[in-house]
Amino acid sequence: MMSNRMYDFLKWLSILCLPALETLIRVVFAVWSLPYGEEISATIVAIDAFLGACLGISSIQYKGGESE
Questions:
Q1: Which residues of 30-44 are buried (b: 16+ CB within 10 A; e: fewer)?
Q2: How many alpha carbons lie under 13 Å from residue 61 in its C-beta half-sphere?
Q3: How far from chain centre, in Å, is Cα 66?
């Protein structure tokens, strides 16, 4: 079970921080012709997708455990 604080942090990370970091990496690496920009940004997107899926599952399990 994940604490609310941890869930909120991971949600913030997946919704705001990782997409912003991916955009920054993609743009800066392209502008400066640095190597591996596509690979790094694709890795960030994959991590973000995995994290989003885990948070979605956690949210469904939490809501399923609530009594109505």
A1: eeeeeeebeebbeeb
A2: 9
A3: 26
* 22-36 pLDDT, tens digit each: 999 999 999 999 999
| Residue for token pair 């912003």 | 20
Phi and psi at 34, nearest 5°, equal -85, 150
Cβ-based neighbours of 19, under 8 Å, separated by 6 or more: 48
Confidence at residue 67, expressed as pLDDT on a 0 to 100 scale: 53
pLDDT digits (tens, 9 = 90+) for 37-50: 999 999 999 999 99
